[in-house]
Amino acid sequence: MKKLISVLLVAVMLFAVAAPMASAANERTPIIYIRGNGDGIYYPDGTLCVAQLEEVSLGGDDEDGTSKDAIVEATVNILKPFVLEGMLFDNWDNYGRAIYEEIKPLFPDSDLDENGNPKKGTGVLSSTMINGTNMANSAWYYNANGHYAFPYDWRLSPYDHVDRLHEYVLQVLRTTGQEQVSMYARCMGGSILMAYIERYGHLGLIKNVMFCDTLSNEATVISKLFSGQIEFDAKTIERYAGQLDFCGQTGDGVGFAFSEVLYEIVFKTMDFFNQINVTDKALDEVEVLYERLCKALIPALLHATGMATQINYWTEIAEEDMDTALNLLYGEEGSELRTKYKGLIDKILYYREYVSSDLDGFYKKLDDYGIHYGFIGKYGFMNMPLTADADLLSDALVSLTHITYGAKTAPVGGTLSEDYIAQRTAAGFSKYIAPDKQVDLSTGISPDTTWILKNAHHDVFECLEQIVWPFLNGTKENADTVYARTGYSQFLVYDYDTNTMTNMTEENCAEYEWITGVVEKPTTETRLAAFMRFFTMLMNYITKFLKGEFSFSDLLGGGITVH
Fold first, then answer.
1. From CA 345, how far away is CA 329, in angstroms rounded?
2. How many CA atoms lie within 13 A of 475 on its CB side?
3. 3-state secondary structure 295-306
């Protein structure tokens, strides 16, 4: 009996010690992570719906030898109506149809039906596949990185997810014993988070929110592409070609890994043509042609890939571009296509009414609800070169101004004017101006809780967790700001070789060569230098070719890699 009593006493003592330890462990704020798109989408039965775009080679045939023939056949099928009907008779309908028919098989299930629903049921991200088990039907699961990851189908309307996300939040709170969660959204996940806050933020369940590279304040590329606002600028295209090569080498975003030979030929040729204004003159003619075929080209591409029906992309379109985009992709009010897709369009307009049409009001709600919020943005890359506003500082997808909801930025390759910097300094805002003089965060909506990472692509985000987690674990009494943090400043620079970030200084904030290497205003000296580089290169390869030291296989260098 004494032995039994001793065992019970020991158990009670251990419980008394363990209970405070467990309580302390649960004091950490539970964090819910809402990621963006990019992964494959699996249906609830585990079958694949939309696969992630994989690396492909355009340099040769597939194992069965069909790749090259298929590319040639597709090219011919598109060029025939382009030349024989479009160019000759200004009839572009069949050209658009040909593009759709050639591209659509690559994206068989990516589009939604006319009511904005998946054709085979609701899909979820492949990140819910854990050890071969489909977690789609689980209310939540705990991620190895220390946060709760919310699975959702990124094609759908954000409002298709908010009720399920709310149940998810409640279950996390029940499991952890906490009264509030913090929420972290990245990329397209920002729209889901904004819709959730709009509907449920008043309940007081959210402590901190971090928007990382979110597209919900407008994604410049998407907005201008969907609304058909295409522009042509030689210097922008030259810079973007360099960016494509860099992204091809690093594997981030869309890029072509050029061979060294092809890289030299492309850039020295473009540099020379831009210097003597040949490229701009040629692009003027292309722009005239584009205006004629725009109504066929863009709708065909966006419907073939499914993007035109994926409602979450529509949440990223600027308010001033929305009507133009709807008319371009679905026709005017009362048109056959507009009527057919009424259910889908109603979902687009619902988000517009309750969130995107009044972003000032949305952020005021965050303050009213007592939610501590912050932003992380990146720049150093370019938006797509053929879209309007391609020269805005961006992470290759969304401009820094839109990520931060209002930061003032210089154009790509430039700096803020000396007069502007002097005015902001006199007004007491100098601490918000980046060391490279390209960014002024004081005009953003929350400058004291905004961090910026230069020379990082949209796909870079893991290193930023060193800022995200402390922020999300902060309390209202000890709110994390750029001034409360030790080790990292507000302005940071990314290093691709080490996947690390360091504080930005005037000495380490240089831009990538493809940006700085393009001459803004050609002079006689720069034109002569460009000609000599081009001519020397041309003679060098002609000589090597005649001596048998160079072949076209060297030009491809094993293929052009597309990520």
1. 11
2. 5
3. HHHHHHHHHHHC
What gap in Å lies between CA 20 and CA 287, rounded to an integer? Answer: 69
Q: 28-85: per-residue pLDDT in tens?
A: 789 999 988 766 677 766 677 765 544 444 444 455 444 555 555 666 566 665 655 6
Q: How many Cβ atoms are within 10 Å of 405's Cβ, its own excluded?
A: 22
For 492-544, the pLDDT digits (tens) are: 999 998 999 999 999 999 998 888 877 666 777 777 776 777 667 777 767 77
155 touches 118 (CB < 8 A): yes
How far is Cα 260 from Cα 85, in angstroms, rounded to an integer? 39
Query: Which amino acid makes up residue 169?
Result: V
Residue 8's pLDDT is 35
Map residue 267 onto helix, strand or coil. Answer: helix
Question: Tokens 């295209």 label which residue?
Answer: 237
Q: Do 503 and 491 form a contact (C-beta atoms < 8 A)? A: yes
Q: How far apart are CA 94 and CA 8, in angstroms?
A: 84
d(CA 300, CA 289): 17
What single-letter DSSP state applies at residue 59? S
254, 245 in Cβ contact below 8 A? Answer: no
Whose tokens are 């158990």? That residue is 11
The residue written with tokens 């290497």 in the block is 517
Question: Which region among 120-134, 335-349, 439-453, 538-552 has the lowest average model confidence (pLDDT)?
Answer: 120-134
d(CA 378, CA 393): 9
CB-based contact 224:387 (threshold 8 Å): yes
Q: Can you say how many angstroms the Cα of residue 217 is from the centroid of all Cα atoms in its chain?
A: 12
- For residues 123-131, average pLDDT: 51
* SS3 state of residue 503: strand
Dihedral sign (CA 38, 42, 43, 44): negative
Q: In 10 A of CB 32, how many CB atoms?
A: 23
Write the secondary structure of 307-328 as one string of H (helix), E (strand) and C (coil): HHHCHHHHCCCCHHHHHHHHHH
Q: What residues does 212 pair with on adjacent strands?
A: 186, 376
Asked if 110 and 50 touch (Cβ cutoff 8 Å), the reply is: yes
Query: How many angstroms separate the CA atoms of 406 and 453, rounded?
Result: 17
Q: Is the dihedral of CA 255, 257, 260, 265 positive or negative?
A: negative
Identify any residues that bridge with 379 across adjacent strands, giving them in sequence order.
454
How far is residue 151's CA from residue 141's CA, in Å, rounded to a whole number? 9
Rounded Cα distance, 414 and 408, in Å: 13
CA nearest neighbour of 119 among 129, 128, 109: 109
pTM, 2 dp? 0.81
The tokens 């045939």 sit on which residue? 61
Q: How many CB atoms lie within 10 A of CB 505?
A: 12
Closest CA to 481 of 523, 504, 514, 451: 451
Q: Which neighbouring-strand residues pair with 451?
A: 376
